[in-house]
C-alpha cells in the first residue's frame, strides 16, 4: 500500500509539471502579440492645422504682388518725368534714324556701282567694266562653288566675250538693294552674228556685294 501511494503521488506531480510547461506565460503572450502583424494597425496621420489668422508666407512663382508705380507727387515732378520720357523717345528715334540713313546711303552707293557695271557691260567696254571690280573679286555659283578669283581671270573671261559677241544687253526685271548687297533678276540678250538680231535670250539672277565702291563678290544663281 505504501508503494502504491508513492506511485500515485509521483503520477500526480508529473501531470502538474506537464500542464505548467504547456501553458504560455504572460511574457510569451506579449511577444506573440508583437509578432502577429495581421493585427498591426498603422498610426493615424494628423492633418496640419492651418491658422486662418496667420498670413500666408508661401512663395509661388507668378504670385508675387507687383510693386505699385511711384506717381509724381506734384506738378514739378510730373513735368520732370514727362521730360525724361520724351528725351528717351527722342534719343531712340535719333539712333534709329541715323542707322536708317547710313543704310540708305550705303544702298544708294551700291546701286550706283551696279548701274555703272551694267552700263559698261551693255557697251562691251572692258576697261570701264573691270573698273568697278575689286582686285581680288570672287565669282561664285550658288551656294559656294568658286568659279574664279581676281581681275586677270575676269578680263580673260569677259574680254573674250565682248570681242566675240556682236551685241550684249542686260536689263533688270526686278532688283533688290539692301545696304552693300544688290540682287538683280535680269533679262540677258546677246547677238552672235548680227548686232541687229538677238539670237539668245535668258533670265539670270545675280548677287553683288559692294565695299568701298568696288564689287568684291558676285554670286550667280542657276
Describe the structure.
The protein is an alpha+beta fold and 222 residues long. It has five helices and six strands; from the N terminus they run ααααββαββββ. A hairpin with a 2-residue loop joins strand 3 and strand 4 (181-191). The longest helix has 49 residues, at 75-123.
Short structural description:
This protein has 222 residues and is an alpha+beta fold.
Largest sheet: 6 strands, mixed
- Looking at the structure, what is the overall shape? elongated
Ranges where pLDDT stays below 50 over 5 or more residues in a row are: 34-38
Strand order of the largest sheet: 2-1-6-5-4-3
**What Rg do the Cα atoms give?**
51 Å
Instruction: For the record, give the distance between the C-alpha atoms at the N and C termini, rounded to a whole number.
Output: 138 Å
Helical content (DSSP H or I, runs of 4+): 40-55%
The number of helical elements comes to: 5
Q: Which structural class best describes the helix and strand composition?
A: alpha+beta
Average of pLDDT: 80
Please provide the count of β strands. Answer: 6
Write the element-wise H/E pattern from the N-terminal end onward.
Answer: HHHHEEHEEEE
As a percent range, the share of strand residues is: 25-35%
Amino acid at each position: 500500500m505504501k508503494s502504491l501511494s508513492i506511485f500515485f503521488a509521483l503520477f500526480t506531480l508529473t501531470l502538474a509539471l506537464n500542464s505548467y510547461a504547456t501553458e504560455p506565460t504572460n511574457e510569451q503572450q506579449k511577444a506573440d502579440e508583437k509578432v502577429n502583424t495581421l493585427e498591426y494597425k498603422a498610426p493615424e496621420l494628423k492633418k496640419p492645422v492651418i491658422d486662418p489668422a496667420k498670413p500666408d508666407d508661401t512663395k509661388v512663382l507668378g504670385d508675387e504682388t507687383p510693386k505699385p508705380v511711384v506717381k509724381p507727387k506734384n506738378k514739378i515732378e510730373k513735368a520732370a518725368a514727362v521730360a525724361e520720357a520724351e528725351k528717351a523717345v527722342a534719343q531712340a528715334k535719333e539712333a534709329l534714324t541715323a542707322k536708317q540713313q547710313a543704310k540708305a546711303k550705303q544702298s544708294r552707293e551700291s546701286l550706283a556701282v551696279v548701274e555703272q557695271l551694267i552700263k559698261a557691260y551693255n557697251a562691251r567696254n572692258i576697261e570701264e567694266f573691270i573698273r568697278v571690280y575689286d582686285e581680288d573679286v570672287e565669282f561664285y555659283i550658288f551656294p559656294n562653288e568658286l568659279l574664279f578669283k581676281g581681275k586677270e581671270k575676269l578680263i580673260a573671261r569677259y574680254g573674250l566675250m565682248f570681242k566675240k559677241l556682236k551685241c550684249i544687253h542686260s536689263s533688270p526685271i526686278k532688283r533688290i538693294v539692301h545696304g552693300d548687297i544688290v540682287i538683280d533678276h535680269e533679262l540677258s540678250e546677246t547677238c552672235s552674228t548680227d548686232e541687229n538680231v538677238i539670237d539668245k535670250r535668258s533670265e539670270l539672277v545675280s548677287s553683288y556685294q559692294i565695299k568701298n565702291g568696288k564689287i568684291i563678290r558676285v554670286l550667280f544663281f542657276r
